[in-house]
């Protein structure tokens, strides 16, 4: 250990968020066993909690965690006679002898352009043998390092239900002998949709954390962007990959202005646009133009185009809201989800006024459970349980001069919001409307 300064639990937690997914991916490749990989990484962090406050953070925290976890795994394999596999033990020992802390910093030690351990693990988690909800949950658990309660809150399901999904998904991977590898070129297109959905959800969890006191988790956003760049290198002719990367970059570009000096949420209408990241915006706009030239529109490309219109406006009043509504109309034609309709209502309010938009939102509420198809009914129910739905209603009602109804909608939004920063923002809005002090609940 070269560092002598003591480290706090908060610092170890930060390293956990940054390195957990990477460590699990490396150990999954080493042992070929998801449970063993995750257990040993968790053991390594448990040891770190005891030792690092005394010894200090090692020069390469990721290398220390991976090496410690690998040693724990090798010891477990040796102890458990029921896992008496000489081949697995030999492979693990060989991996240990040729990998040290410095080599961990160079993940792509195998030949080829797409040997990244985390990307390999994403495709494993997104295997078609797994249910879509399990694919996303497992990837968030293994790559994002989210806890089971955090994932359960993101999916609005009980923690026990989510725990069962994750356990079943791991068992399915083991029982079906699903390989931990990048699919062949022939299989890639069929696996792409779920992989993109997983990357987008990881990014969204980073951009607005499902729980906790902080609004964002920059480590998750950065990881999602990194993996999407890697995926674009793997599939450069897939416009939806390019569209997703553009969407992430244009969304992330607003992040510096989205959080105030006090760490509180700043809505789009109040953001200081000079603080937006112009480099990310330029790159995102270029990617959107490349998508337009291909003329193969998809959901992520259209969402990226909407964000391009937003980031093209130097001032809020310069926003081309009519163009945004038209883009949402195109998006609804190919991806008719309630959340897309809710976002269209926000844009519609700027074009046709809050009264028209509120009527549109109320129509969404009345349609819950009445549209055909069980999948659509489930999505409608999810919309009603989303704090965003009630937040939009509250804002429209406020603008229409209906404070009593707006306060009720704010109460519903506050009750459903699970992120403390969003709750505080909604409480301030409610307090302003009710005439209470800004810090009133």
UniProtKB/TrEMBL annotation:
UniProt keyword Nucleotide-binding, yes or no: no
Region (Disordered): 78-112
Annotated Basic and acidic residues bias: 78-89
All copies of domain DUF6596, residue ranges: 191-289
UniProt KW keywords: Sigma factor, Transcription, Transcription regulation
Record has Transcription regulation as a keyword: yes
Superkingdom per UniProt: Bacteria
Domain RNA polymerase sigma-70 region: 16-83
Alphabetized InterPro entries for the sequence: DUF6596, RNA_pol_sigma-70_dom, RNA_pol_sigma70_r2, RNA_pol_sigma70_r4_t2, RNA_pol_sigma_r2, RNA_pol_sigma_r3/r4-like, TPR-like_helical_dom_sf, WH-like_DNA-bd_sf
GO biological process: DNA-templated transcription initiation
Entry GO MF terms: DNA binding; sigma factor activity
The RNA polymerase sigma factor 70 region 4 type domain, residue ranges: 122-173
Residue intervals passing through the bilayer: none
Family statement drawn from the similarity comment of this UniProt entry: Belongs to the sigma-70 factor family. ECF subfamily.
UniProt-recorded name of the protein: RNA polymerase subunit sigma-24
Organism: Microlunatus endophyticus
């Amino acid at each position: 250990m070269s560092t002598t300064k003591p480290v706090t639990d908060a610092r170890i937690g930060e390293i956990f968020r940054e390195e957990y997914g990477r460590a699990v991916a490396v150990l999954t490749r080493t042992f070929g066993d998801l449970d063993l990989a995750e257990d040993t990484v968790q053991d390594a962090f448990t040891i770190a909690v005891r030792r690092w406050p005394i010894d200090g953070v090692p020069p390469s925290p990721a290398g220390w965690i991976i090496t410690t976890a690998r040693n724990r795994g090798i010891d477990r394999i040796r102890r458990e006679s029921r896992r008496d596999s000489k081949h697995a033990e030999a492979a693990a020992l060989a991996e240990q002898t040729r990998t040290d802390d410095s080599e961990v910093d160079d993940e792509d030690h195998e030949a080829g352009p797409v040997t990244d351990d985390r990307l390999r693990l994403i495709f494993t988690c997104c295997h078609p043998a797994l249910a879509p909800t399990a694919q996303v949950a497992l990837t968030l658990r293994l790559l994002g390092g989210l806890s089971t309660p955090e994932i359960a809150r993101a999916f609005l399901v009980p923690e026990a239900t989510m725990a069962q999904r994750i356990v079943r998904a791991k068992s399915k991977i083991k029982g079906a002998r699903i390989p931990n590898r990048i699919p062949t070129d022939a299989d890639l297109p069929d696996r792409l949709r779920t992989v993109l959905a997983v990357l987008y959800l990881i990014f969204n969890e980073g951009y607005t954390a499902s729980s906790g006191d902080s609004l964002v988790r920059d480590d998750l956003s950065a990881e999602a962007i990194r993996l999407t760049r890697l995926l674009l290198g793997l599939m450069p002719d897939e416009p939806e990959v390019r569209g997703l990367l553009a969407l992430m970059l244009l969304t992330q570009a607003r992040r510096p202005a989205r959080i105030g000096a006090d760490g509180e949420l700043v809505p789009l209408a109040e953001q200081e646009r000079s603080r937006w990241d112009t480099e990310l915006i330029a790159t995102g706009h270029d990617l959107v133009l490349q998508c337009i030239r291909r003329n193969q529109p998809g959901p992520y490309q259209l969402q990226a185009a909407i964000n391009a219109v937003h980031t093209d406006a130097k001032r809020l009043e310069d926003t081309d809201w009519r163009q945004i509504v038209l883009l949402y109309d195109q998006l609804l034609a190919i991806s008719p989800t309630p959340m897309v309709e809710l976002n269209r209502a926000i844009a519609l309010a700027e074009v046709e006024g809050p009264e028209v938009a509120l009527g549109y939102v109320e129509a969404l509420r009345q349609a819950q459970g009445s549209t055909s198809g069980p999948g659509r009914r489930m999505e409608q129910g999810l919309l009603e349980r989303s704090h965003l739905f009630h937040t939009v209603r509250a804002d429209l009602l406020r603008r229409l001069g209906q404070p009593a109804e707006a306060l009720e909608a704010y109460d519903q939004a506050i009750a459903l919001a699970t992120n403390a920063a969003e709750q505080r923002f909604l409480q301030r809005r409610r307090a302003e409307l009710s005439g209470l002090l800004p810090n009133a609940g």
